[in-house]
Amino acid sequence: MMLTTDMKVFAWGQNGHRAVAEIANNHLNKKAKKALQEILGDSAYLPMVSTWMDDIKSDKKYAFMSPWHYFNIDEGEKFEDVERNPKGDIIKAIDDMVAILENENSTKTQKARAIKVLTHLVGDLHQPFHVGHKSDLGGNRVKVTWFGKPSNIHRVWDSEMITSKELSFTEIARFADHATPEQVEELQKATTIDMMNESHALCTKFYAEVGDGKLGYRYMYDHYKTVEERIMKGGIRLAGILNKVLG
């Protein structure tokens, strides 16, 4: 099975991505912060670069990055059974960015782009529908209504639950970033595949819960805590990766 290359996905929206990056910023060690300053200069604040991969989607020279935002696993499939896209996917892209940052021969320009991509994709990987079904473009074809207005289940999880809260990204991060030091240590043990498996398990659950597709207050009540949890985990794990490769 090949991954689709035409999915128009913007995981977590701008505020969600910035919240992931803000939480990561809170958990960086001193060496990683210093390295970020040296590499990114005036942009050495992760929320500033967290939406770069969405910002450049209209630029054709970056079209090769389009498949990097997701990994499709259809119902009943396992990761090991999926035919990998030769143009890349979110798992390979994250691992490739880590390799660039670990390589002492990488240029500052290469490292700067790797940080931008990594910051975005770790966020993407924690949005459950970025590990959704190929057949419905990760939930983009699963039509629902959100407070009576047409939408799809992917968009609800990308941005509409977050937007409905009317919070800034710093408020989202402050409310979500409540892990204990022991939890942080445990979360940062996760591999890229572990993160993917978590999202896929949640995605499978949420597909089954779409019901009649009329989503609103009750859906928010039942699921917004999961949105916060995924943003928190994404931020803490991003910090763990950056602390390891830059610290």
UniProtKB/TrEMBL annotation:
CDD domains for this protein: S1-P1_nuclease
Is the Cell membrane keyword given for this protein?
A: no
The source's superkingdom equals Bacteria
User: Which InterPro entries does UniProt cross-reference here?
Assistant: PLipase_C/P1_nuclease_dom_sf (IPR008947), S1/P1nuclease (IPR003154)
An example molecular function term from Gene Ontology annotations = nucleic acid binding
* Keywords from the named record: Disulfide bond, Endonuclease, Glycoprotein, Hydrolase, Metal-binding, Nuclease
Query: Could you tell me which Pfam families the record lists for this protein?
Result: S1-P1_nuclease (PF02265)
**PANTHER family, per database record:** ENDONUCLEASE 4
The protein depicted here goes by the name S1/P1 nuclease
Please name the source species. Answer: Flammeovirga agarivorans
